[in-house]
Amino acid sequence: MDITLGTWNPGKVEWMSRGLAGTGLPIRRLKEGQVPEAEETGSSCEENALIKALAVAKHADGPTIVAAEDSGLFIEALDGFPGVRTARFAPGSDDDRSRLLLERLKGVPMERRHAVFVSAVALKMPGGFGKVFRGELRGRIAMEPVGDKSEGYDRIFLLPTGISLASLPLEAGEVRDHRRKALALASEGILSWLDERRGLI
């Protein structure tokens, strides 16, 4: 038994591999074009993660656990926008999209700039069982970009301490805490499933 990652994005492959390493299972990576890209039509990160996992599972070679992830930034003052469209609501880079969000939030006071990063990891087990695990990182949107340790949305997302994600080194736990939480829960789910399987043998 192994795990197939439902992505060919090198960065995502790296942190998903680290996050699922505790399962002790070999981890397979997709090659670009190996699986048709799934259309993310879901209204939540959970739905989109499951869409990706199911799409990869259809093309899987032999029994494998497929793990796929979707994430987004949900801003309270914008009624949850950009949400599932965080990576694609406007052309350009995440820095460009961050600046657009700051424009939309002009005049909104700090007490109304609550936001949450959401990460959903979907697992598709051999035999049809599927489950989604969710992690969150709560904070607020800054008045202007802050920090130079990372780019994009990290520069406008403030932790409850008032520090931006981009002011922290990339290895700091808080920087990807929503993803770490979701992957930790997914790892537990995989280990529980393996234990149940062993009990049936």
Automatic annotation (TrEMBL):
UniProt keyword terms in alphabetical order? Hydrolase
Q: What name does the UniProt record give this protein?
A: Non-canonical purine NTP pyrophosphatase
Q: Which domain of life is it from?
A: Bacteria
Q: Pfam families from the entry?
A: Ham1p_like (PF01725)
Q: Which residues form the signal peptide?
A: none
The family database entries (Gene3D superfamilies) matched by this protein are listed as:
3.90.950.10
- One GO molecular-function entry: nucleoside triphosphate diphosphatase activity
Tell me which PANTHER family the record gives.
INOSINE TRIPHOSPHATE PYROPHOSPHATASE (PTHR11067:SF9), INOSINE TRIPHOSPHATE PYROPHOSPHATASE/HAM1 PROTEIN (PTHR11067)
Q: Which GO terms describe its biological process?
A: nucleoside triphosphate catabolic process
What family classification does the UniProt entry report for this protein? Answer: Belongs to the HAM1 NTPase family.
